[in-house]
Each structure stands twice: as C-alpha cells, then as structure tokens.
Amino acid sequence: MKLLVVEDEHKTGEYLRQGLIESGFIVDLTDNGLDGYHRAMTEDYDLIILDVMLPDIVGWKIVQSLREAGKDTQIMLLTAMGSVEDKVKGLNLGADDYLVKPFSFAELLARVKSLLRRNVPQVNNYQLSIADLVMDLPKRTVTRADKRIDLTNKEFLLLEYFLRYPGEVLPRSLIASQVWDMNFDSDTNVIDVAIRRLRNKIDAGFEPKLIHTVRGMGYKLDVLDEAD
C-alpha cells in the first residue's frame, strides 16, 4: 500500500518514512503543505499522514480542501496540540484519526493498519473465533469450549475488536478511541479494568490463555507458545 507523509520536521519525517518502509509500505515524503496537497490531489494514496503545523499552510486547511475536492483518502493528523477541541476540529473537517506528538511508532503503525483495514471488506461478518473461543455476531453470543459466556455490551465490543485483529498489539489509546470513542487519559484505568474483567470471563478456568499484556505497549489476543 502507498502512503504519503507530510511532515516539515526532517528528523521526524525520515523516522516515519523509514519505519513505514520497513513495515512493508511504499512511502512518499514531503516537507511542506503545498507539495503535500499537490501530491494528494494528483496521485493515488491509501493513506495520508499529515502534520498540522506546517510552515506554509496548516494541515486543517489541507484536510478541508481535499474533502471539498471529493478526495476520500484516509487521513491521519499528527500534531503537538492535544486538546479535545483540536481533535474535534480535525475530525469535523474530515480527518479519520488524530495522533498527538510525541508518539510511539508502534502506536502509529497500529493506527495506520486499523485505518487501512476500514477499506478491506470482512470475509466473515457472522462469526469470529480463536482457539476454542467463538463469537456469533448476529446472535450476540460468545462461547468457549462450548460453554456460554455472558458479556456486557462494552465487553462484547472489546472482545470483538480483539478478535478482528488477533496477534496484533493494540495500544490502550487505540482501544479507547475504537471501543469507547474517547481520548485515552493516562491517569484513568478504565481500559485496564475492562480488560481485567473480560480476561476473568474468557480466560479464567480455560487453557490456553488468550488475552496477553504487552508491557509498555498494550494488549493482544493470541495463542502463545509456552516459550513465549
């Protein structure tokens, strides 16, 4: 897939370009808004990673202009401005996601993959499974080893999100935005509490354990080898 990175900070731009190339993407990099806008209008990209504070034109204006021109390319905004108002402004103008600087590359990559998957049709929209855990979406039921597991609505959504991305590390902030539709506040433990409750329901008394904590990064749903 082909990505466009518009970032005026040379070190940050090269860091993103190299990391995304190593992750398997084709990447174009430009260091100013006008060149970025021109490339976004004249070339086909699967996703644009766009800095907000550019030297010649603010990222808000680029997003607005692209949307007014009918361009529906996925856009992720990068900015040091982390207020709720700034995020709402970017999303209202047509951005698809918003990541505050400084950020970890692991989180950015997870968000990029999540955005790109929105354009990929699901092969099976009726049933999701891993090991002996089965989620029936139309019936809104979950079983493990053929035993019915009762979940709250939020627990069901959280497990569904894990099941759609098995084996991938999901940062807390990404879980917060995708499942709770909120900004992640490092001072709150709502994500950890919810995952602890979900883990108690689907892992307690069963083997293998499926929900794993990846220290300093987030959580993942996976069947791990004993050596892992």
Question: What are the SSEs and their pairings?
Answer:
Elements: E1 2-6, H1 10-22, E2 26-30, H2 33-42, E3 47-51, H3 59-68, E4 74-79, H4 84-93, E5 97-100, H5 105-117, E6 127-130, E7 133-136, E8 141-144, E9 147-149, H6 153-164, H7 172-180, H8 190-202, E10 211-214, E11 218-221
Parallel strand pairs: 1-2, 1-3, 3-4, 4-5
Antiparallel strand pairs: 6-7, 7-8, 8-9, 10-11
Helix pairs in contact: 6-7, 6-8
Q: Can you describe what's shown?
A:
- This is DNA-binding response regulator.
- Keywords: DNA-binding, Phosphoprotein, Transcription, Transcription regulation, Two-component regulatory system.
- This protein has 228 residues and is of the alpha/beta class.
- Helix content is 39%, strand content 21%.
- It is built from eight helices and eleven strands.
- The strands form three sheets. A five-stranded parallel sheet has the order 2-1-3-4-5, sandwiched between helices. Strands 6-7-8-9 form a four-stranded antiparallel sheet, covered by helices on one side.
- The protein is elongated and about 60 Å long.
- The protein starts with a strand and ends in a 7-residue tail after the last strand.
- The mean pLDDT is 88.
